[in-house]
Design goal:
There is one protein chain. The chain is 80% helix and 0% strand. With 521 residues, the protein is mainly α. It starts with 6 loop residues before the first helix and ends in an 8-residue tail after the last helix. It has helices spanning 7-13, 19-42, 47-54, 58-86, 88-107, 112-140, 144-175, 180-183, 185-199, 213-236, 240-265, 281-311, 316-340, 346-366, 374-401, 407-440, 447-450, 452-460, 462-470, 474-513. α6 (112-140) runs antiparallel to α7.
């Protein structure tokens, strides 16, 4: 399918650049990608030390984790569109410098409140980073084959950072202090700030409109309450507060969409987000594939982490290391599909990746989990191969199907899809898993009487069951954990079966809608 670009963007893309300079620019763009990926996973290992050193409550620890993604999700679309207007490289530099400065200040936070405010600040500057890197790749590599390889390297950097985060975070906390997990941002981002102006070309929309302040406010008021509501519903179940937040977010989202349509129909105004991008079925389907790839991955990690730590007795570091081969498979798959799409249509590659994800869930749904973590880790490996393949090509299709002038907005939508997919995978599959566990758990006789308060927690979560077992005599503790394992596994089987159907359906959709996208030249 030919991508029609506007004349000004075509002239900009045709400006000669040395190939070596392009790849050096890509290497610098990997700095913020690694930074965000490491930051997303490393902080988890610092939470016990933060609780001890700052005397943080459970609620404060929760906000320490949640402040970042809430602000990030609310600002991604606004920042992507802002980059199209003021320059993507400029926005990247502002975000990188701000992220490094706030990280350094937050590393020495004297209180939990300071730390939470710092995490919110990181979300603000983090929203500038990922859309900028992806949209700059679109303009540095206009030729499809080189762009596809660059996107694969970009995705590999994100996956590699996610794999490195638990290992690096655990080492830093163990050998230094929890603030080092945040302070590591400074040396990671320093090469970009020193060399970026020399190697990374500026790009922007050649005909930018004014920034619409009410649209930015509406996008923030739509995403933040909606994300908060879904997260609370997933962790605490139905309640008035999260339902009200979700409803308010949906209402603001509706008002945001109405305003974008109205601004688009007014020749004197420019919408913050060009909704006409979604009229392209390649763009829309690739976004759906991205969302579902992250949905499947995060939903899987949710129950796998609990299984490894609470049922297999692994430490967080051990469970993180156990997942590294599968995360490495994500990188390998993303790089291998680049030459593959020269022979196989991209839509079929995306569909094949989603089918691999479905096959991973099939192993879980049909497998026996009593013999150790082998089946689950093998299933994760298969799933990650599928995620790596589908994610790389879907990202390339998103960038390639959008005009170069709108690449910032397209990248922001892609990143928002990442956040939404991750969130929904945890929320929906996690809620199904929890509900099944609670319905199927049968406490052994005598356990509730031995520790009534702990028994109530055991009925709620697998972690509660593990804590109850620690307070019981050995024979009763073994019976307790056997009952918890059975209840948890029943939920895993149900969750996996539902995810399998969703992934298979998404694969069919991708194969049908994207079937006409030609192979790479």
């Amino acid at each position: 399918m030919d991508i029609i670009l506007d004349t000004a963007a075509r002239r900009k893309e045709s400006a000669p650049r040395a190939p070596r300079r392009d790849w050096l620019a890509l290497a610098l763009l990997m700095c913020p990608v690694l930074l965000v990926a490491v930051d997303n996973t490393a902080l988890t290992f610092a939470l016990p030390a933060i609780a001890r050193d700052l005397d943080a409550t459970g609620v404060e620890l929760l906000w320490t984790v949640d402040a970042y993604p809430l602000v990030l999700a609310g600002l991604l679309v606004a920042m992507g569109s802002l980059g199209d207007r003021i320059g993507r490289r400029r926005l990247l530099f502002v975000g990188s410098a701000g992220f490094a400065a706030v990280s350094a200040a937050t590393a020495f936070a004297p209180s939990a409140e300071w730390l939470i405010a710092g995490r919110a600040g990181l979300g603000f500057f983090g929203a500038m980073l990922m859309p900028s890197t992806l949209s700059l790749i679109r303009n540095i590599f206009p030729e499809p084959n080189r762009r596809r390889l660059a996107v694969a390297i970009w995705a590999a950097g994100f996956s590699g950072g996610a794999a490195l985060g638990p290992i690096l975070g655990g080492w830093l906390v163990e050998h230094l202090w929890w603030g080092a997990v945040l302070l590591i941002a400074v040396p990671i981002i320093l090469p970009l700030l020193l060399l970026g102006a020399l190697l990374i070309p500026e790009s922007r929309d050649p005909h930018p409109g004014p920034v619409d302040g009410p649209s930015i406010a509406l996008s923030l008021l739509a995403m933040v309450p909606a994300v908060y509501g879904i997260k609370v519903l997933a962790t605490e179940g139905p309640a008035a507060e999260p339902l009200a937040a979700l409803g308010a977010g949906l209402l603001m989202g509706y008002l945001f969409i109405r305003r974008q349509h109205r601004l688009a129909s007014d020749t004197s105004s420019t919408p913050l987000l060009d909704l006409s991008l979604f009229a392209n079925p390649v763009f829309s389907t690739a976004i759906i594939a991205n969302v579902l790839a992250l949905f499947s991955y995060n939903g899987f990690i949710l129950f796998l982490a609990q299984h490894l730590q609470l049922l297999e007795g692994q430490s967080p570091s051990e469970s993180g290391l156990a997942m590294v081969p599968a995360l490495a498979a994500t990188v390998v798959a993303g790089l291998l599909v680049v030459p593959l799409v020269r022979k196989v249509r991209p839509g079929f590659v995306v569909a094949g990746g989603l089918l691999l994800s479905a096959a991973g869930y099939g192993l879980v749904a049909l497998g026996n989990h009593d013999g150790g973590p082998g089946v689950l880790l093998a299933a994760l490996l298969v799933l990650c191969l599928g995620v790596g393949a589908a994610e790389t090509i879907s990202n390339d299709l998103i960038l390639g199907s959008a005009p170069a002038a709108k690449s910032g907005a397209a990248a922001a939508i892609s990143e928002t899809g990442y956040e939404v997919g991750s969130l929904l995978g945890t929320a929906i599959l996690g809620s199904i898993l929890t509900a099944s566990y609670q319905r199927n758990l049968q406490l052994p006789a005598g356990s509730a009487q031995a520790a009534p308060a702990a028994a109530q927690q055991a009925k709620e979560t697998l972690a509660g069951a593990a804590e109850l077992a620690q307070s019981l005599p050995a024979p009763l503790a073994e019976t307790m954990m056997a009952a918890a394992r059975s209840a948890f596994d029943s939920g895993v089987h149900i969750t996996a079966a539902i995810a399998l159907v969703l992934m298979a359906g998404a694969a069919v959709l991708a194969a049908v809608v994207l079937r006409k996208v030609p192979t790479a030249a």
